Amino acid sequence: MATFSGVIVPILTPFGATPDQHLAPQAANGLIDHLVDAGVSGLFTFGSNGEFHVASDDERIAYTAHVVKRVAGRVPVIAGVGACSTRTACELARRAQDAGATGLSVVNPYFLQPTDDELAAYFEAVANVAEVPVLLYNIPKATGRTISPEVVSKLAGHPRIAGIKDSSGNLELLQAYLDAGKDYGLDVLVGSDGLISQAHAMGASGAVAGTANLVAPVVVGLWRALEAGNEAAAQELQAAIEPVRNVLHLGPVPQMLKRLVELAGYPVGPARLPVGAPTAQAEEAARALVAELELSSAAEALVGKLAAAAALDL
Prior knowledge:
By secondary structure, the chain is an alpha/beta fold. Helix content is 47%, strand content 12%. An eight-stranded parallel barrel has the order 1-2-3-4-5-6-7-8, surrounded by seven helices. Helix 9 runs parallel beside helix 13 (301-310). The longest helix has 18 residues, at 231-248.
């Protein structure tokens, strides 16, 4: 049975719309409850959409602890603990576990270009202090470095390393990860929302889907349709994600996703500086999309009905 599976949401981190852009954990309560009620399989704090790169270590632990408390055991909570420094990543792993995280996600160091041996040693060091399952995180467009299949193969037998999330968008690489981990039961999750159906067909155990912050019923419905072999439903739901992805491309991560979720009635605030506000054109597109989806704090039913209707026979 997979350790990391289904739809895991890299939940947004709420910051105040004030000059200091303070962390505002309570503002996430409605979003947390909505995602859990929509049937997601887990929440992931401080992924790329969670803005770990502009949060302090203390903020990362405080918000993770808040999410754990609010979730109250309803779904697993995976904490992002990756860092440029092995020492910092290990310390964050210890603190996140103490805060109640049931899994750890570890991105490779960014800005740096470690060798494969150095990268394997970094992941192994974090796994050695872990008391919960560890999910490696490959996102070369942000780190400048791909986690090679050889590194994954070397680490797959570690008792704490249970999976890898691949956000490269490269299906050949995803297959290489599947091959590297197949003898160890390593979970492979897709992090590119436009490739969820293809990744499932290849054998991925789940998806870490940023779009689910906005359209969780659609993404959950998609995964359920795929699991049930309902191809018609899956095609419709996969296609329903594309308008969201199109708007997300109008600004840097997570500018547009936070704006969409804010317009949908969840006060997650702006992206933290230096990422600024959307352009006038992007703002118009965001408002048009939310109006089309009829996603607001008072009217989410339409998206739920779409997922339910399209996923009949599940």
